[in-house]
Amino acid sequence: MTDEPMSMLMLFSPGAPREEYFEQVAEVGQRGGEELERFRVRHDSCFLPDEE
User: Fold this and answer.
1) How far apart are CA 4 and CA 6, in angstroms?
2) How many other C-beta atoms lie within 10 A of the C-beta of residue 28?
């Protein structure tokens, strides 16, 4: 884990409405738990665990 800046590429194909995702992702991520899992399912988000 690091505090260094990073880059991220997000590709949506085919394009889909994603406004709600970007408006709420930081807030829901802070709360975590089951609410975050439901949010990820609703928005087809899949995160891989960090490799150390």
Assistant:
1) 6
2) 18
- The span from the CA of 17 to the CA of 43, in Å, is 10
C-alpha dist (Å) from residue 26 to 15, 19, 29, 32, 35: 21, 13, 5, 10, 13
Q: What is the pLDDT along the chain (52 residues), one digit of tens a residue?
A: 788 888 878 777 777 778 888 899 999 989 999 999 999 889 888 777 766 6
Q: pTM above the 0.85 mark?
A: no
For residue 43, give the DSSP letter.
T
